[in-house]
Design brief:
Elements (H helix, E strand, L loop, with lengths): L13 H19 L4 H8 L3 H13 L3 E6 L9 E5 L5 E7 L3 E7 L5 E8 L4 H18 L5 E8 L2 E2 L6 E3 L10 H9 L3 E5 H11 L10 E6 L3 E7 L2 E2 L30 H5 L1 H10 L13 H9 L3 H25 L3 E6 L5 H15 L7 E5 L5 H15 L6
Parallel strand pairs: 3-6, 6-9, 10-13, 13-14
Antiparallel strand pairs: 1-2, 3-4, 4-5, 7-8, 10-11, 11-12
Helix pairs in contact: 1-3, 2-3, 4-5, 6-12, 8-10, 9-10, 10-11
């Protein structure tokens, strides 16, 4: 239940009701992808005349299209309605410290084009490269109208200024990336941190928390991010900085974190932490080649290297301790893990689950599941940033 904010509200009008009903119809068609007007009436509870007016308007605006005739036991066969997937093209950009992924997607989230480029150390160079790719892809897909750009960042975005203000693992300083991209491409830009983008990806496209209104996404990479969908709403906080559990200190005298503090959760449970565990492990005087990346560590583990296995197990233990904190504090129904650690979830998952079961006695039935990188949740979440403009419930009060 939401309290009406009397300092910031809009009164409901007849247009508001039409907008809400229109989005209900649009989402029903998106869900079923092939549905008749009669079934829309039954699913929505709206009157036949209302459904007829809304569908005709959505067809005229090219959001919907009519398809084949459906089956009927008696009477006239119904005309099936489909989402016009190419009505809008959405650019998704997932910025990471080493590589940046780009995609052009349709309304169903299917990628029409995709590319990965090295992340420049200078944001001005980045903007120039992105603008070039966007213009090339627009020229290559003249039928698709491009609606905007969604950007996923390894840091937090201030809601009022739309500047990224906290990105300890990215070498850029705070910059007005939104305005620069909009000026360079001529398209509107929406920005969000990677964890929230992954939560939106799961909310709009995912299968792990389908139909769940209370779930948490934990992204594990160079750092740890947490995205929260609670009561069906993405939780950002007033400033947009809510969810920085990766920078909650587990100990006061631990290793220094990129944020400047010591003993943060991510210095114990991130990819970088696992690499550190491997390089610090072993017997004294034992010569060993240090690993530089988490991918190398995973390769060693695949070859049954005992020190690599121990490093990943230690990482999983601390991952479980942090997740137990989330379970106790937020009581989600589902927790979705995103990152390269999911490649060895058969090893890490049981450790995480056991620690959560023993430490989070308030809500032990939470489902902890892994979302593989194949679904590209960060990139698909950046697409969802723009998609939700047309499919989410409009804000009234």
């Amino acid at each position: 239940m939401r309290k009406i904010d009397l300092n910031n509200f809009q009164v409901a009008t007849s247009e508001t009701a039409r907008d809400i009903n229109s989005r209900i119809i649009l989402n029903l068609v998106r869900k079923y992808q092939q549905i008749s007007r009669a079934d829309l009436m039954r699913q929505s509870g709206l009157q036949r005349s209302t459904v007829s007016v809304i569908t005709e308007q959505l067809i005229s605006e090219q959001w919907l299209r009519e398809g084949a005739m459906g089956a009927s036991l008696r009477g006239r066969r119904p005309t099936m309605l489909h989402l016009n997937e190419n009505r809008a093209g959405i650019f998704g950009i997932n910025i990471q410290p080493v590589f940046t992924d780009l995609a052009l997607a349709n309304l169903s989230g299917h990628f029409l084009a995709q590319e990965s480029i090295p992340t420049p150390r200078n944001p001005a160079v980045f903007v120039k490269q992105i603008a070039s790719r966007v213009n090339e892809w627009i020229a290559a897909h003249p039928v698709t109208a491009c609606e905007g750009i969604g950007v996923s960042l390894p840091g937090r975005v201030d809601l009022s200024s739309q500047k990224f203000v906290f990105a300890p693992n990215l070498s850029w300083h705070a910059a007005d990336l939104k305005s620069q991209l909009e000026k360079a491409t001529g398209l509107s830009v929406s920005m969000e941190n990677a964890a929230n983008a992954c939560a939106l990806s799961e909310f709009w496209f995912g299968k792990h928390a389908d139909g769940v209104n209370n779930f948490v996404v934990v992204t594990v990479s160079e750092g740890i991010g947490v995205g929260m969908i609670l009561n069906g709403q993405l939780v950002r906080g007033t400033s947009g900085l809510a969810g920085e559990f990766g920078h909650v200190a587990l100990t006061d005298d631990g290793p220094q974190c990129g944020c400047g503090n010591h003993g943060c959760w991510e210095v114990y449970a991130s990819n970088l932490a696992a690499v550190r565990y491997y390089n610090e492990g072993g017997s004294r005087g034992q010569k060993r080649k240090p690993v530089q990346t988490f991918s190398e560590l995973l390769q060693l583990n695949a070859h049954e290297n005992p020190r690599a296995k121990k490093a990943l197990e230690r990482m999983a233990e601390y991952l479980g301790k942090g997740i137990a904190m989330l379970v106790a504090g937020l009581a989600p129904d589902v927790i979705v893990i995103v990152g390269d650690i999911t490649q060895v979830w058969n090893q890490a998952g049981p450790i995480v689950t056991d620690i959560v079961r023993r430490r989070a006695s308030t809500h032990p039935s939470v489902k902890i599941t892994a979302s593989g990188n194949a679904s590209q949740p960060r990139l698909r979440g950046s697409v969802a940033l723009v998609l939700q403009r047309y499919f989410a419930v409009p804000t009234v009060a």
